[in-house]
Amino acid sequence: MTTNVDETTIRTVMGTVDSVRTIEGGGFAVRRPFPTEHLAMYDPFLLLDEMGPADYAPGEAVGAPDHPHRGFETVTYMLDGSFQHKDSAGNSGILKPGAVQWMTAGSGVVHSEMPSEEVMQNGGRLHGFQLWVNLPAAEKMVPPRYQEFPAEDVPVASNEAGVWVRVIAGEALGVDAVIDTHTPILYLHFILQPGASHVQRVPSEYNAFAYLVKGRGRFGIDEQEDAVEGELVAFDQDGGQVRVTNTGDEPLSFLLLGGLPINEPLARYGPFVMNTKEEIHQAIEDYHAGRMGVIDF
Ligand code: CO
């Protein structure tokens, strides 16, 4: 952990990583900045998927039917279309544009993430994000927890300089998030108008990156190149602020993510992320024995 960083210093850019297109769950296309062969994780974050944007004809939309998770949290944020969630803890919900679902799998949950009836029947666009947030060893087996907020309950803020932000976790433009996180996390969705600039506070002990959804942006201090759609901009841990400017001629949309690194050994196997191989074997055994429950409604 850094101890003598000036919190007013703007972070420099460590590098830019391109995302990889892949197929997830029941067959939906995602753009994935990590994990890939170039970037295994971004402690405390284990995975980030941009789902779509994909346009489906009636009856064609696909999702991720019943599957388990243990040892971390899944965070779903929708931009377009709607997903229906059900889990073995008895939770269900329909996530519409702007909604956020923060599911702590903890000791284990079986859930299904499917396009809503409306999208299944009528077709339409699906676009959203799934983020996996690791849990420290001491909290991997906490009881599952489900937090779901429709768009109108997720705080947004804007200023006269052309900056708009949805505050999913942490704080921006003087507005605090409503979602409770197990570890300190910053999760912001920014949209900057052409020419707009913003400086965002990111605690210096956090790992932090930006993921470009649309448009062009320049990050850091003396960067000579713009970041574009599908790229992850990794920040050095050398300051308490991040600066961005929209250098394109359309709105710049990006996610800014930060969190306190957990710095523990990882054992991951598909939907289970633990600290040792033995714990992975236990997770598989518990799942097959039905100890993570079933969706029975
Ligand atoms: Co899942």
Structure, described:
The protein is mainly beta. The protein has a single domain, classed as Sandwich (Jelly Rolls). It is 6% helix and 50% strand. It contains 2 helices and 26 strands. The chain has helices spanning 117-122, 277-288, and strands at 13-18, 20-24, 28-34, 45-56, 64-69, 72-80, 83-87, 92-95, 100-104, 109-115, 124-134, 145-149, 156-158, 163-169, 171-172, 175-176, 185-192, 197-201, 207-214, 216-219, 227-228, 231-235, 241-246, 252-259, 267-269, 272-274. A 7-stranded antiparallel sheet has the order 1-22-19-24-17-14-13, with no helix packed on it. Strands 2-3-4-11-6-9-12 form a 7-stranded antiparallel sheet. Strands 5-10-7-8 form a 4-stranded antiparallel sheet. Strand 13 (156-158) and strand 14 (163-169) form a beta hairpin. The radius of gyration is 19 Å and the shape is globular. The relative contact order is 0.21. The structure holds cobalt (II) ion (CO).
List the helices and strands and how they pair.
Layout: E1 13-18, E2 20-24, E3 28-34, E4 45-56, E5 64-69, E6 72-80, E7 83-87, E8 92-95, E9 100-104, E10 109-115, H1 117-122, E11 124-134, E12 145-149, E13 156-158, E14 163-169, E15 171-172, E16 175-176, E17 185-192, E18 197-201, E19 207-214, E20 216-219, E21 227-228, E22 231-235, E23 241-246, E24 252-259, E25 267-269, E26 272-274, H2 277-288
Antiparallel strand pairs: 1-22, 2-3, 3-4, 4-11, 5-10, 6-9, 6-11, 7-8, 7-10, 9-12, 13-14, 14-17, 15-16, 17-24, 18-23, 19-22, 19-24, 20-21, 20-23, 25-26
Cobalt (II) ion binds next to strand 5 and strand 10.
